[in-house]
């Protein structure tokens, strides 16, 4: 069916392959008239809902783009629009990476004496490694290893992440309690930023099967995987709005996802700088962590 005057063209037959990937439907023609936007209609697969699979649109030609999409309502239909890092201009991505590299290198250099002191104190006060490593969701749902200073007694930390840390958690060491309260345990994630698996600012990386309000995050909100269209961050919009720590209630879990997706939709360099400044004041200076 098609009506170029109304701006849509759908081909109902034929399959193809693009760069080794199966293509279910192709648009053999695209309206030649100038238009500000275009809509591609499809039925999402049940196998991809709630999983780290992004819906993408590829336009061939000299101005080809490939974008991850987000959903919004137009009438009774869910229409997906650009969201995340892939949809941002090259200048934004370049500036964000430059700020990340500058921040990570500067932080590791100037904080080196403090980081070494923390490492020595951890080894001196409890058995076990200095760093705690855990698999987390990264960009586009890819798993990566996150670094943190170890704050729990050895063999008592939950590497699966299913059991959330609670206020007054008995697994935490005395030194670990200080590190968590000041959020200094997060500083080794500057290594992740340097590696490119994290950014200074972005949605906080979650472990697979993380629980929110008694259910898995993936089952809690169908938009959950949209938050992974941005690099995860050491801090983020949700954190500076108070959404951190346990997610025991519907309101806290939904608030965190709402802010994460808002960031993926509206992120700017100026906004990142504002979040960083708010984080220094709220997290490192006020001691809100646990």
TrEMBL record:
<protein>
    <submittedName>
        <fullName>Lipopolysaccharide/colanic/teichoic acid biosynthesis glycosyltransferase</fullName>
    </submittedName>
</protein>
<feature type="transmembrane region" description="Helical">
    <location>
        <begin position="98"/>
        <end position="122"/>
    </location>
</feature>
<dbReference type="Pfam" id="PF02397">
    <property type="entry name" value="Bac_transf"/>
</dbReference>
<keyword id="KW-0472">Membrane</keyword>
<keyword id="KW-0808">Transferase</keyword>
<keyword id="KW-0812">Transmembrane</keyword>
<dbReference type="GO" id="GO:0000271">
    <property type="term" value="P:polysaccharide biosynthetic process"/>
</dbReference>
<keyword id="KW-0270">Exopolysaccharide synthesis</keyword>
<dbReference type="InterPro" id="IPR003362">
    <property type="entry name" value="Bact_transf"/>
</dbReference>
<comment type="similarity">
    <text>Belongs to the bacterial sugar transferase family.</text>
</comment>
<dbReference type="GO" id="GO:0016780">
    <property type="term" value="F:phosphotransferase activity, for other substituted phosphate groups"/>
</dbReference>
<keyword id="KW-1133">Transmembrane helix</keyword>
<feature type="domain" description="Bacterial sugar transferase">
    <location>
        <begin position="96"/>
        <end position="282"/>
    </location>
</feature>
């Amino acid at each position: 069916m098609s009506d170029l005057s109304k701006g849509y063209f759908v081909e109902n037959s034929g399959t193809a392959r693009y760069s080794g990937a199966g293509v279910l439907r192709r648009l053999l023609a695209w309206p030649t008239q100038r238009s500000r936007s275009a809509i591609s209609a499809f039925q999402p697969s049940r196998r991809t809902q709630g999983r780290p699979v992004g819906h993408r649109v590829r336009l061939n030609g000299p101005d080809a783009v490939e974008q991850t999409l987000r959903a919004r309502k137009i009438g009774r239909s869910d229409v997906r629009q650009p969201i995340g890092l892939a949809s941002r201009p090259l200048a934004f991505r370049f500036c964000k990476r430059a700020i990340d590299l500058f921040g990570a290198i500067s932080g590791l250099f100037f904080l080196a004496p403090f980081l070494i002191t923390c490492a020595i104190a951890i080894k001196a006060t409890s058995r076990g490694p200095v760093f705690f490593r855990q698999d987390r969701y990264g960009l586009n749902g890819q798993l990566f290893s996150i670094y943190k200073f170890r704050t729990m007694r050895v063999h008592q930390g939950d590497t699966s992440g299913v059991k959330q840390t609670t206020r007054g958690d008995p697994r935490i060491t005395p030194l670990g309690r200080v590190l968590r309260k000041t959020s200094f345990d997060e500083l080794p994630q500057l290594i992740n930023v340097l590696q490119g698996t994290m950014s200074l600012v972005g949605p906080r990386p979650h472990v697979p099967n993380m629980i929110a309000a008694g259910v898995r995050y993936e089952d809690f909100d169908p938009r959950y995987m949209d938050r992974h269209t941005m690099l995860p961050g050491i801090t983020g919009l949700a954190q500076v709005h108070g959404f951190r720590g346990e997610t025991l209630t519907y309101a806290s879990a939904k608030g965190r996802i709402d802010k994460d997706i808002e960031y993926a939709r509206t992120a700017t360099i100026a906004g990142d700088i504002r979040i960083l400044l708010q984080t220094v004041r709220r997290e490192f200076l006020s001691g809100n962590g646990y």
